[in-house]
Backbone:
């Protein structure tokens, strides 16, 4: 397992702290090679989604990798057009077929689709009972969405996967999730590569003799999150995993916290588009 660290979710299952992101990893050999290279580099956690159209390439790489399925942690997500009770059950079965797996480690509702998210969550509780998903969680949920789920079902998601990096430091959401024992998974932790040259980040990177990407990943780890850097580049896949042998000091963590500018690179649950993304 190399240097991999784990957090324990509220259902007792362990989750590796750094996972490979695969959004915009091209279907086919690009995703396949990225997943194989990541496993070779020590990653044990892969984050995919129905909407990324690359679940079957992830599955192919997992089969070809020299590793037991039980030593890997695979996340996929329910896409909006499949939300609802019966449709969510069917979508999970289809994702399992594409991944060529008997179970999903973590299944997420990709987006808090109004009018459908509660029925989807009811299906997720059933899928977990049936053993098709070991853990169930959500993505892009606001505090209000999380409160609603708890009130209606009493079953709290294991994780909430949201955009999280120093330029979008969602402190209130993090504190709420910590208080409920919901782990935050930081997506777009590298700010979708849009701040790699930002001078304050570059200065901290110089002071620490670590790359900007490593600083961003380590910041999220030290704030108690799961981190999902995406790359299809073999060298960067290795670079993004070399984050277990150093620590950012309290004073530099504070300087990173201060980079917050509510910079959203992806879709924004607090200002959702007037249409439901499908
Ligand atoms: N649930 C959701 O709604 C949601 C939304 C967004 C993302 N996600 C998940 O979170 C993952 C990560 O987010 P993301 O893909 O938006 O962005 P990200 O990981 O913040 O950034 C990815 C970008 O950074 C580049 N990059 C990677 N490592 C680098 C390095 N060491 N130095 C310089 N550039 C580097 C990548 O290019 P190369 O590939 O060419 O290296 C790519 O352009 C996704 O892949 C997905 O699994 C989930």
Residues:
């Amino acid at each position: 397992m190399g240097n991999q660290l784990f957090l324990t979710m509220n259902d007792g299952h362990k989750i590796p702290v750094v996972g490979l992101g695969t959004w915009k990893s091209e279907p086919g050999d690009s995703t396949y090679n990225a997943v194989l290279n990541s496993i070779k580099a020590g990653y044990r956690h892969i984050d995919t989604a129905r909407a990324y159209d690359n679940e079957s390439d992830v599955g192919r790489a997992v089969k070809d990798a020299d590793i037991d399925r039980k030593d890997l942690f695979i996340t996929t997500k329910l896409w909006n057009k499949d939300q609802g009770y019966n449709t969510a059950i069917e979508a999970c079965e289809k994702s399992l077929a594409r991944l060529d797996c008997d179970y999903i480690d973590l299944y997420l509702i990709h987006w808090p689709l109004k009018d459908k998210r509660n029925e989807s969550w009811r299906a997720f509780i059933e899928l977990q009972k049936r053993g098709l998903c070991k853990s169930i969680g959500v993505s892009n949920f606001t505090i209000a969405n999380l409160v609603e789920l708890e009130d209606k079902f009493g079953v709290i998601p294991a994780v909430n996967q949201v955009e999280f990096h120093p330029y979008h430091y969602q402190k209130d959401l993090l504190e709420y999730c910590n208080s409920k024992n919901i782990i935050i998974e930081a997506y777009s932790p590298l700010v979708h590569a849009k701040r790699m040259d930002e001078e304050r980040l570059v200065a901290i990177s110089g002071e620490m003799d670590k790359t900007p990407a490593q600083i961003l990943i380590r910041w999220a780890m030290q704030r108690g999150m799961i981190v999902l850097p995406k790359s299809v580049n073999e060298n960067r896949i290795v670079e993004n995993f070399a984050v277990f042998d150093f620590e950012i000091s309290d004073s530099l963590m504070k300087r990173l916290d201060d980079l917050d500018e509510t910079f959203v690179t992806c879709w924004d649950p607090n200002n959702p588009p007037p249409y439901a993304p499908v």
About this structure: DSSP finds ten helices and ten strands in the chain. The mean pLDDT is 96. The pocket of NAP is lined by residues 21-24, 47, 110, 139-140, 161, 187-193, 196, 211, 213, 228-233, 236, 239-240, 266 (CB under 6 Å).
